[in-house]
Amino acid sequence: MAVLLRRLRAHLHDPYDFPASRITSEAAFEECLDLAAALGARVAELGGAAPVGPAERERMRGLILEGLMASAAENLCVLRSGLQSSRG
To answer: Residue 8: which residues within 8 A CB-CB, separation 6 or more?
Structure first.
């Protein structure tokens, strides 16, 4: 899961940095996001949760994407505040 999330974050940071993300297109990004949701569902099942249906898997996919976007926005804010403080 960590590898998938790291690749997704790298792609969101710079979609053209293929060596960092190993994601070459938007379709590959979607596939990676689907894999993360499927893996999350499987981990939950192994933990004793009931198997999830398509609607729940789509919800999980959305939550993963929201988390990635929030992380990207937070990193951008930290970067901007660092630049402003260095300018004095």
So the answer is: 21, 23, 29, 32, 33, 36, 64, 68
How confident is the model over 3-9, as a mean pLDDT?
Answer: 93
Rg of the chain on CA atoms, in Å: 16
Q: Nearest Cα to 31, choosing from 13, 11, 17?
A: 11
Among 24-33, 51-60, 63-72, which is the least confidently predicted range?
A: 63-72
Q: Extract the tokens encoding 8.
A: 């997704």
Confidence of residue 73 (pLDDT cuts 50, 70, 90): confident
Length of the chain: 88
Q: Tell me how far apart the alpha carbons of residues 13 and 62 are, in angstroms, rounded to a whole number.
A: 18
